[in-house]
Every structure is written in C-alpha cells, then in structure tokens.
Design a protein that fits this description.
With about 325 residues, the chain is an alpha/beta fold. It has helices at about 1-20, 35-50, 70-80, 110-115, 120-130, 170-180, 190-195, 205-210, 240, 245-280, 290-300, 300-305, 310-320, and strands spanning about 25-30, 55-60, 85, 135-150, 165, 180-185, 200-205, 220-235, 285. Helix 2 links the parallel strand 1 and strand 2. Pfam families: DctP.
Length: about 325
C-alpha cells in the first residue's frame, strides 16, 4: 500500500511542471537591435514578465528572424506566433482600408501623425484587425520616409528618371512615378546590394533605418522629401490572446501601452541621432522646398482613393483630427 501511495504521489508531482509551465509569447519584428522596435519589444517583455508571476514569458525575435511582415501576419492569423510589430502597408492585402495611410503627404509631421493615430481614428483602425484573426494593440511611432541614394534631390526635377526602390503598394509606386522617378519595388533585404551595384539610384526610408542598416556605406545623399508618414503597430494573434485569462489580457494591454510610449520616445531619439551620424559619415543632408512635391503628389489622391475601401470617408475622419 505504501508503494502504491508513493507511486500515486510521484505521478502527481511529475505532472505539476506541465501545469505550471509558462505560456511563451513569441514576439517578432523586422528591424535592427538598436531600433525603436527593439526598445518597444523589450519594454513589452519587461512588463509582461514582471506582472505575470512567471505565468507568461516573451521571446523576442528581431531582424526578420520569424520572416518578413507579410509572413508574420500570416503566422499570427494561424496562431504560429503570438505578437509582432508591422508597418501599415503589409496589412493592405489583408485589410485594404489601411491603404489610406499610404497617401503621400497625408500628414505634416511625425507629431501630427502620432497624435491622430493615438486617438479615435487609430482605435478604429486597430479594431479592424479583429476581422482578420488579429488583435490590434497599439500604434507605435510613424516613420518619416524620405529619399536617400547617390544623387541629391532638391527639386521634383531632380527626381526625373531616378530608379527608386519603394515599398510594394499603389500609394508608394504611383507616387514616385508621378514625381518622375522609376519606382522599383524589391525586397528590403536586396536594397543594399542594389545600391552598391547601381541597380537602383536610391530608396526611401526613415533616417535611422539608413544608419542602422549601414546604407551610409553606399550612399552620398539623404534628401528630406518626407513623402510618407508610415504607421507602425503592435499586433497579437487572436488565437494566442484568447488563451490568456482576463487578468493576463489586461496585463498585455498595459505592456503594449508602455511599449508604445517607449517607441514614441525612442523613434525621436534615433531619428535625431541618425541625422548627426549621416553628416559625420559624409552624407549630404538636402532639404528641398516641399511645395512642388506636395502639389504633384496630392493630385494623385482621387485616383488612389478609388482603390481604397471607404477611402474618402476615412480620409475625412483623419483630416478632422489634424
């Protein structure tokens, strides 16, 4: 009898570790370790793990270790990953309403864009993710995207004929075509070599990305065209989120809010630091008059809005918050 009791107790204790094991939230993003994405991811991990008494852990996979943003969107919808940070354009195939954020010169500044996205308009777009099996947690800082490459851009005339790598999507491709460039969509991972070998003359990105991904080694100019203010956001898999208790869900939302705040602060700092680094690296910082760029780009809005569901209505909502 004692032997039977001992065996029974042993089986109970053997099962306890699996019952008490933590749920690990796999968290992916595409940027470098010194990016504001990583700062936000680390804040999210810190808050979740500190507040969950060991019941939740977060494993961070930066630099596209879980795939690009389109791949992570697909993985989150199936529950293969728990959370990820994405820019808005990769969501357009799944939720075409997000195309409104790819309108050129939609915002006038990073602060203005972030102000809109941290309000009712941002909440409305985050809620749209639920129809695609995802939970929109928070918008992070937008990226102010400008042209960098081998040639200076001080006027629209300077754009004529330049082969510019752009994000895949009508709001980017048609804008650069309208400005006279030859828009050239390609994978981001190919851009460095394409610039190095002269396959493209330039690309568009935020200044800190140019520094973090070492494009300073193959360019001579960064031109502050500020054509797009591209949103980014933290998204969770609905499958994983629904495995959490109500208390854990609240904790994750609080962690997301603190990660958002960390993102907003870190982006401004890395942006400012990058401009200094660019100059110190011998890259010319060009500041063109944006009026003629805006005139040419804004003329595209009616055509672009035709291809965006609820585009005009959502644009009106955005403009009401400016």
């Amino acid at each position: 009898m004692n032997i039977l009791k001992s065996l029974a107790l042993s089986s109970v204790f053997i099962s306890l570790p699996s019952l008490a094991s933590a749920l690990d939230i796999t968290f992916g993003h595409t940027l470098a370790l010194d990016s504001h994405y990583q700062v936000a991811a680390e804040k999210f991990k810190e808050v979740v793990e500190a507040g969950s008494d060991g019941e939740l852990t977060v494993s961070i996979f930066p630099q596209s270790q879980l795939g690009g943003e389109v791949r992570m969107i697909q993985s989150a919808r199936t529950g293969s990953i728990g959370a990820f940070i994405t820019a808005a354009p990769p969501l357009e195939n799944t939720l075409p309403e997000f195309g409104v954020f790819s309108l050129p010169y939609l915002f006038d500044s990073v602060d203005q864009a972030n102000g809109v996205l941290q309000g009712p308009v941002g909440d409305m777009f985050l809620e749209k993710l639920s129809s695609a099996g995802m939970v929109g947690m928070n918008f992070f800082s937008v990226f102010e995207r400008s042209v960098f490459g081998t040639s200076p851009v001080n006027s629209v005339q300077d754009m004529q004929g330049l082969k510019i790598r752009v994000l895949q999507g009508p709001g980017f491709i048609e804008t650069y075509d309208a400005l006279g460039a030859q828009s050239t969509p390609m994978a981001y991972s190919e851009v460095f070599v394409a610039l190095q070998n002269g396959v493209v003359d330039g690309a568009e990105a935020s200044p800190e990305q140019v520094v973090q991904d070492r494009f300073v080694e193959v360019i001579d100019n960064f031109s502050m065209t500020k054509i797009h203010y591209m949103p980014s956001m933290l998204v969770m898999s609905d499958v994983i989120f629904n495995q959490l208790t109500p208390e854990q869900q609240e904790l994750v939302r609080e962690a997301s809010a603190q990660a958002r705040d960390a993102s907003l602060e870190a982006y401004k700092q890395t942006y400012a630091d990058a401009l200094v680094t660019l100059e110190e690296s011998g890259v010319a910082i060009n500041e063109p008059d944006l009026a003629e760029f805006q005139d040419a780009a804004l003329a595209l809005w009616p055509r672009l809005l035709e291809g965006i569901p609820d585009g005009e209505a959502n644009l009106e909502l955005i403009q009401e918050q400016l």
